Amino acid sequence: MVDNGIIEESSGPWASPIVLVKKKDGSTRFCVDYRKLIEITIKDSYPLPRIDDTLDALNGSQWFSTLDLKSGYWQVEIQPEDKEKTAFTTGEGLWQFKVMPFGLCNAPATFERLMETLLRGLTSEACLVYLDDIIIVGQTFQEHLNNIRKVFQRLQKANLKLSPKKCRFFRKEVSYLGHIISADGVKTDPEKTKAVVDWPRPETVHD
Questions:
Q1: Where in the numbering of this chain does the Reverse transcriptase domain appear (predicted)?
Q2: What's this model's pTM, rounded to 2 decimal places?
Q3: Would you say 20 and 90 are in contact if contact means Cβ atoms under 8 Å apart?
């Protein structure tokens, strides 16, 4: 994280504890417990889009591409005077983030504001954005291709990087925000309901 420009040593008065969260694949995710910092943080009221409104706006589209920003939050630099507030303790001293970490209560609002400002004039017509998930639409292949170019130009200008493995281009059907999107409409992604569908049928009152 130091070599990648994510964190740096800190000499400020702030410190939050770290927590290690086990992921589904067995690996461990490094997190910082910012609950105490959140208690004294002035909340940003910038709203996130309503998912149902976002999905409704996709009606009429024939072509779809989805983009995923690479470690989206980490592409947002923190104001110099606020870096020390993100500090955390380790066995090797005190460190602070140079970029926006996960766990801050205002991180989603900050990121959504950034993306909507960046894509202003394109949202609703060429694309829709929910945090680091972008969907580009089009009624014809050529219109869709032009919309992709427009979005890429904005991202390039802002020096935002994508995660190629998570991007999907020129599809007639895509998964987006837990739903399957196609020219036929919107339906829930079966992968999101699989756990409920496969839940064993109760055989006793106790079950």
A1: 2-181
A2: 0.83
A3: no
Residue recorded with tokens 């925000």: 177
Number of domains into which the chain is organized = 1
Looking up residue 82, the CATH number of its domain turns out to be: 3.30.70.270
Give the structural domain span for 46: 2-191
Per this entry, what is the length of the chain?
207
Whether the Cβ atoms of residue 49 and residue 112 lie closer than 8 Å to each other? yes
In a domain, 198, yes or no: no
Backbone angles phi, psi at 3, to 5 degrees: -65, -30
- The tens digit of pLDDT for each residue in 19-30 reads 888 877 778 888
Does a structural domain hold residue 197? no
Q: What DSSP designation does 173 have?
A: E
The predicted-structure confidence for 8-60, as pLDDT tens digits, reads as follows 999 999 999 998 888 777 788 889 999 999 999 999 999 999 988 888 888 88
CB-CB neighbours of 117 under 10 Å: 9
Query: Considering the domain boundaries, does residue 201 fall inside one?
Result: no
